[in-house]
Amino acid sequence: MSGATVRIAREEWRWLARSRVALVAGVLLLLLIITATFTSVQKHEAIDEARARYQSEQIEQFYNQPDRHPHRMVHYGQYVFRPLAPLAFFDTGVDAYTGNMVFLEGHRQNSANFAEARQSSLMLRFGQLTPAFVLQTLAPLLIIFLAFRALAGERERGTLRLMLAQGISARQIVSGKLIAHAAVAGAIVLPALLALTIMSASSGASAQALLIILGYCAYLIVWTLMALVLSALVPRARDALLALVALWMVTVVLLPRGLPELVAASQTLPTRIETEVAIGRDLKAIGDSHDPDDPYFNDFKMEVLARYGVSDVQDLPVQYAGLVAMEGERLTSDLFNRYAADANAREDRQNALVRTFGLASPLIAVRQLSMTLAGTDLDNHQDFLSQVESYRYSFVQHLNRMQAEQIPAVNPGEDPRIDASNWLEVPGFAYVAPNPLAYAGGRIAQSFGILAAWLAGLACLLILAARRLERIAR
């Protein structure tokens, strides 16, 4: 790095420090990031503590149930809450829209409920005040307002020609401006870096936090390069500002919100009602465990009698109704899983299409990267639902097995129950969050690749713009 480049960078910093507008805007954005980080951390801790408390209370209520018939406990069910990922304070991702609580019961696969977006005002859809939102949306605006006149202003004032006449090359001038504004971008990321470092130290997510910071540094340098390229190519600073603001509106506001809608229209998902109707139709086709004359369960009855070597269900060493409940749950769960897998596959195709548009908007690439590493993307939600369904099936079958093994055949009108101590044998739900570096390494690399392509393309444009400046000044 030459001495001229360092002097130009130093002079740029000095000008930014003297500019009241630049100084006030920079301080306000830093305060906004600090505020967003502090409030997000506080909210994250409060929500996580509340969910853990509700989960503990719900488990205690289940275990404290009195003597009951096991099938009543199947329908009594239980609630499970999704714990927040350690870095969810930084980027809430899709968590606000997907729900965080699932009610588990027999014969049904319920969806997640209590999404924050459905309980909040419509302003939530414009973005929550999180560090990720500020860095993705507002930080590029600050970079634009600080850098739009970096080169165009020198041309308008005539100082560019003077510097070139003194033997300073256009490449040195451009490099000095780039260093100065890249340092500003680094200062913008610094508060979020500190918060991520602190929060990840105790959770074992340091690698994810480091990659998040690298991704946002690359994203803000993309905007720095973009601002300098346009400032070098456009003769007037005012025109550079207008072009940059228009570019910000397209790549930050319009494309990230419009493209997912287009993708959703091209890859439609069935509604909840349509899915329920289809599942009900398929259930009638495969067998209804509540219908004593159902052909499938008539065959199942013959198979059970043959397996135990008896001629009547009253002679079985286990309760036949419990066996029917277990088989019915197996059939319905297989059906639920097939529909869930189909819905997940459609959602994955939608997300894959959205990710490809990262080449059109760097915000899409950094947003996908941020959500994935923070553990708040759609894949994490799908994994939570998958683990919940696996637990629901084992939970219901555990109770059905109690019915089959502990309750003998009964006469009509009897209400057999088992001892309440049996509920303590039912294991609780423990969610194990996946490591994004293991399940989404390819997508993380794709996002970094897109950001690297933006950096490389804009760097080449800036080199060409520097040569053009030198020719114009002559």
- The averaged pLDDT comes out at 86
Largest beta-sheet details: 2 strands, antiparallel
Count the DSSP helices.
Answer: 18
| Topology order in helix (H) and strand (E) letters | HHHEHEHHHHHHHHHHHHHH
Which sequence of strands runs across the widest sheet?
A: 1-2
What's a quick, concise take on this entry?
With 474 residues, the chain is mainly alpha-helical. The chain has helices at 3-18, 20-63, 70-76, 95-98, 116-119, 131-147, 152-157, 159-165, 170-201, 206-233, 237-266, 272-286, 295-308, 320-356, 362-374, 378-406, 436-439, 441-473, and strands at residues 78-81, 101-104.
Can you characterise this structure?
The chain is mainly α and 474 residues long. The chain has one domain (3-473). 72% of the residues lie in helices and 2% in strands. It is built from 18 helices and 2 strands. The chain has helices at 3-18, 20-63, 70-76, 95-98, 116-119, 131-147, 152-157, 159-165, 170-201, 206-233, 237-266, 272-286, 295-308, 320-356, 362-374, 378-406, 436-439, 441-473, and strands at 78-81, 101-104. Helix 2 (20-63) runs parallel beside helix 9. It is elongated, with a radius of gyration of 30 Å.
